[in-house]
Specification:
The chain contains 4 helices and 31 strands. Strands 2, 3, 4, 5, 6 and 7 form a 6-stranded mixed beta sheet that branches. A 5-stranded mixed beta sheet has the order 1-26-25-24-23, with no helix packed on it. A hairpin with a 5-residue loop joins strand 15 and strand 16. It is globular, with a radius of gyration of 24 Å.
């Protein structure tokens, strides 16, 4: 468990903590739009893979929109006819109280006279209708890939959602995580993986044969920093920092100073990282320029300072410190050393993994309370503490989605007296559990959400 990795370095001491009232967020009473996303009407002549892609369009788009439960009621298309009639049967759908209807059509692309093709291409059309106002709102057209594909459906969802709300969505985002699925016997291996936000398309990124901890992804989604504990038991094992390029698939060493080189996160401009180093004998937080490797101190205190997270604006940093006796969350201005340091967490025996929301207004974190970890949210100034999980296993490592509407986290379930399993779940920012996104992929921990 990654929290153990950090917590064992904290000094043992007792400190009394203030008590804030813990508020559980309730369900908001919002007006939602009923939307029907029909299954694609598929013409004859498609190759098997294109046909499979076509038939999955409706399912994937419906699943996408089902995440935004506060905005849409996704209605089963079986309530009405699957018809390509244009315009659709508005009166029928009005009786069903449907506000929006999405029709999908996939057909073989016509071959121009004299043109020679190796394989027929398939084209899709997604059309959005406003049932109440009896009109077509938009049409999306394009080609389906000839390999197994889910990205086309996610792109259609993105365009539809942008039309409805004018805002970005999570549909094309990724989640980076760590899994032990390649472990063999007593040889523990934890490698880096990436998947679509909904848990599909998972693929392994690293093959170190050691233990990967504390991944973080750049704001542009192109690079991942992480720490590696070498799997060679004959060597003195150091916690080294590496960077992975998602485009090239290559990994290279960033820092191998003695002790800890960990907890790194990217600065918003991507030119530097903020990380924890212990080469001076105490764990402190530094800024490292990625080009020159020059270090600039951010914390300077006799206590242990770890696990930094920087807001998108770059003017706030949350981090863990045992300055008060036990690990708690502090914030400061990372543009100076020990600048404007303030403690903001006062819940549980200790806290861990603070993560800013994209707008910088909130911090999600885990706290040890009632003999388990649960996830909380607090305003970045320390006000308004909310408990997001309860009676749902032991929950750690929150990470916000790119639009700030969701939080992914790892949750542990006890299977027996001697075994447990960790998987990644998603909840909305108010604490309503949307669902489990990993299953049968080993113990999955430390999710990090990317664009």
């Amino acid at each position: 468990m990654i929290l153990k990795f950090f917590l064992i370095i904290f000094l043992s001491a007792n400190a009394s903590a203030q008590n804030l009232a813990i508020i559980k967020i309730g369900d908001a009473d919002l007006e939602k739009d009923n939307i029907v996303i029909q299954n694609a009407v598929v013409s004859e002549g498609l190759d098997p893979i294109s046909k499979k892609n076509a038939e999955s369009l409706g399912t994937i788009i419906r699943n996408d929109f089902s995440f935004y439960k506060n905005l849409f009621n996704v209605i089963d298309p079986a309530v009405g006819p699957a018809s390509l009639k244009t315009p659709p049967m508005y009166s029928f759908w009005q009786q069903k109280k449907i506000r929006y209807l999405v029709s999908l059509k996939v057909s073989v692309e016509p071959v121009k006279k004299g043109e020679v093709v190796k394989a027929a291409s398939s084209i899709f059309t997604a059309e959005l209708f406003d049932v109440r106002d009896k009109k077509s709102l938009m049409s999306i057209e394009g080609k389906l890939p000839t390999v197994e594909d889910r990205s086309t459906a996610h792109r259609i969802s993105t365009k539809l959602f942008k039309h409805f709300t004018g805002k970005p969505s999570i549909f094309e985002s990724k989640i980076v995580y760590v899994s032990d699925r390649t472990s063999k016997g007593t040889r523990l291996r934890k490698e880096l993986y990436i998947m679509d936000y909904d848990g599909q398309g998972s693929r392994q990124l690293t093959r170190h044969g050691g233990t990967v901890v504390s991944p973080a992804i750049s704001y542009d989604g192109s690079k991942i920093v992480y720490s590696l504990i070498d799997g060679n038991r004959r060597k003195k094992r150091n916690v080294n920092l590496r960077i992975f390029d998602l485009k090239s698939g290559s990994s290279k060493l960033l820092s191998s100073r003695s002790g800890m080189n960990s907890g790194a996160v990217f600065s918003p401009d991507g030119n530097s990282i903020v990380l924890t180093l212990s080469h001076t004998g105490n764990a402190e937080i530094y800024r490292m320029n990625l080009n020159s490797k020059k270090l600039t101190g951010i914390t300077r205190h006799y206590a242990v300072d770890v696990d930094p997270n920087v807001s998108v604006s770059g003017d706030q940093m949350a981090f863990l410190s045992d300055r008060s006796g036990k690990p708690n969350i502090y914030i400061n201005d990372p543009r100076g050393e020990e600048k404007s340091v303030k403690r903001v967490s006062f819940v549980g025996e200790f806290t861990a993994t603070p993560r800013f929301s994209p707008d910088g207004k909130h911090i999600a974190f885990s706290a040890w309370l009632d003999n388990r970890f649960d996830i909380f949210r607090i305003d970045s100034d320390g006000d308004n503490l909310y408990r997001l999980t309860k009676d749902f296993g032991s929950n750690e490592d929150p990470t916000y989605s790119n639009d700030g509407e969701f939080i992914a986290f790892s949750s542990q379930r006890v299977l027996s007296r001697t075994s447990a399993v960790q998987n990644i779940y998603i909840m909305d920012k108010g604490g309503e559990i949307i669902g489990q996104v990993t299953k049968g992929l080993g113990n999955c921990i430390t999710p990090r959400w990317s664009k």
